[in-house]
Design a protein that fits this description.
By secondary structure, the protein is an alpha/beta fold. It contains 12 helices and 12 strands.
Length: 363
C-alpha cells in the first residue's frame, strides 16, 4: 500500500515538472525585433492628415518610415487622421501609448502638435511641412521643417517653356498655401526665362485629393490653348494626367510617376517627404534629435530634387520632342548647379501666382 502511494506521488511530481518545463518553452518572444544588444526598440507613429495610397506625399512619407524600420529596427505605426476634429485626439493617443517619436503632417496639424507636445515633454515630435520653431517661442521636443520648392519648380517651368508649341502653359496646384504659391511663382519665372513670349494659366484645385476637380480645371486650361501642364496637387494629379491624355498634350508632376498611365507624362519634381521622416528617425536613433529647431528643406539639401531619369526617359521615347527636351535638360541642369551654389537666386515669393506680374517684373 505504501509503495502504491509513493508511486502515485512520484508520478504527480513528474507531471508537474513536465508542465512547468512546457510552460517555460511557450513564453512569448520579445517584440524588440533585431535587438540582440538589449537596446530598447524605438517606437515611431506616423500620423497623417490625408489618406495613404495617394501615390504622392502620404505614400512617400510611409516609404521613408518603412525604410527606417528596415534599417534601424524601429517599430512603425501608421495612422490616418483625415478629419481636423481628430488631429489632437490622435496625436495625444499616440503620445499616451508611449511612442518615442510622433510625426505629424502639414500646417493643418500644427495646433495639435504644439498642444500635445507640451503635455508630453519627453516625447519627440517631427512636424513635417510646418512652422513651429521659427519664432521666439521654442518647443524643445519638436523639430519642424518647411519645404521651399521654388528652385525645383523654376527648373520645371524652364523645361515647360521650351516644350510648349502653342506658347501656352498651365500650372495646377492643390491649395492656396505659402509654399505652393512660391512653387507657382518659381515655375512662372522659369517659363519666362525659357520663353518670354509664353502665357501661363494658373489655378487651385482646392484639395490634394480631388482628381475630378483637377481634371475639370485642366480641361479648361486645354480649351484655352495650353499644350503643356505642370501638376502640383498630390493625389489630384491623376485628374491632370487623365485630361492631358484625353487631349494628347504634355504634362508633368511632383513626386509620383504617371508614365505607365500616359507616355505624354514627361517628368517629375521630387519632394523629400520620406527622406525627412527617415532623417528624423535616424537622428533620434543616434541621439542627435534637433528639438527646438526649425529647418528648411529645398533643392540644395535634398528636400527637393529633379528626377532627371524621368525627363530623359520621355526624351528617349519621344522622337518629336527628343531634341528640344535633351537641350532643355542640359540647360536646366546647369541652372540647377547655379541655384545650389547661390549664383542663381529664385525668391520664396508666397504671393498668389500671377503671370502678368511675373512677365512685367525685371529679370
Amino acid at each position: 500500500m505504501k509503495k502504491r502511494v509513493l508511486a502515485v506521488m512520484l508520478a504527480a511530481v513528474m507531471v508537474v515538472g513536465l508542465v512547468a518545463g512546457c510552460a517555460k518553452k511557450s513564453e512569448p518572444a520579445s517584440s524588440d525585433k533585431g535587438k540582440d544588444d538589449g537596446e530598447k526598440q524605438l517606437k515611431v507613429a506616423l500620423v497623417v492628415n490625408q489618406k495613404f495610397g495617394d501615390k504622392a506625399s502620404m505614400d512617400d512619407l510611409a516609404k521613408g518610415a518603412d525604410q527606417a524600420a528596415e534599417d534601424f529596427g524601429v517599430e512603425i505605426k501608421k495612422l490616418e487622421s483625415a478629419e481636423a476634429s481628430k488631429f489632437e485626439e490622435d496625436v495625444r493617443a499616440m503620445s499616451k501609448a508611449g511612442y518615442d517619436l510622433i510625426v505629424t503632417t502639414y500646417g493643418y496639424m500644427t495646433d495639435a502638435t504644439k498642444l500635445v507636445s507640451k503635455e508630453y515633454p519627453d516625447t519627440k515630435y517631427a512636424a513635417i511641412f510646418q512652422t513651429i520653431n521659427d519664432g521666439s517661442e521654442k518647443y524643445e521636443n519638436v523639430w519642424d521643417t518647411e519645404f521651399h520648392g521654388e528652385g525645383a519648380f523654376y527648373l520645371g517651368g524652364y523645361i515647360a517653356g521650351k516644350l510648349t508649341k502653342s506658347n501656352h502653359v498651365g500650372f495646377v496646384v492643390g491649395a492656396e498655401e505659402p509654399t505652393p504659391n512660391a512653387e507657382g511663382n518659381g515655375f512662372m519665372m522659369g517659363v519666362k526665362a525659357a520663353n518670354p513670349d509664353a502665357t501661363v494659366e494658373f489655378s487651385y484645385v482646392g484639395s490634394y485629393e480631388d482628381p475630378a476637380k483637377a481634371k475639370e480645371i485642366t480641361s479648361a486650361m486645354i480649351s484655352k490653348g495650353c499644350d503643356v501642364i505642370q501638376a502640383d496637387s498630390g493625389a489630384s494629379n491623376a485628374g491632370v494626367v487623365e485630361a492631358s491624355k484625353d487631349a494628347g498634350i504634355l504634362c508633368a508632376g511632383e513626386i509620383s510617376d504617371y508614365y505607365d498611365t500616359y507616355e505624354g507624362f514627361y517628368g517629375i519634381e521630387g519632394i523629400g517627404f520620406g527622406d525627412t521622416v527617415y532623417k528624423a528617425i535616424e537622428m533620434l536613433k543616434n541621439g542627435e534629435y534637433p528639438g527646438g529647431e526649425h529647418g528648411i528643406r529645398d533643392l540644395t539639401n535634398g528636400g527637393y530634387f529633379m528626377d532627371w531619369d524621368s525627363f530623359n526617359r520621355f526624351a528617349d521615347g519621344n522622337a518629336e520632342y527628343k531634341d528640344v527636351m535633351k537641350a532643355a535638360i542640359e540647360e536646366a541642369q546647369k541652372m540647377e548647379e547655379q541655384i545650389k551654389d547661390g549664383s542663381l537666386e529664385v525668391p520664396f515669393n508666397t504671393d498668389v501666382p500671377n503671370w502678368d506680374k511675373i512677365k512685367a517684373s525685371a529679370e
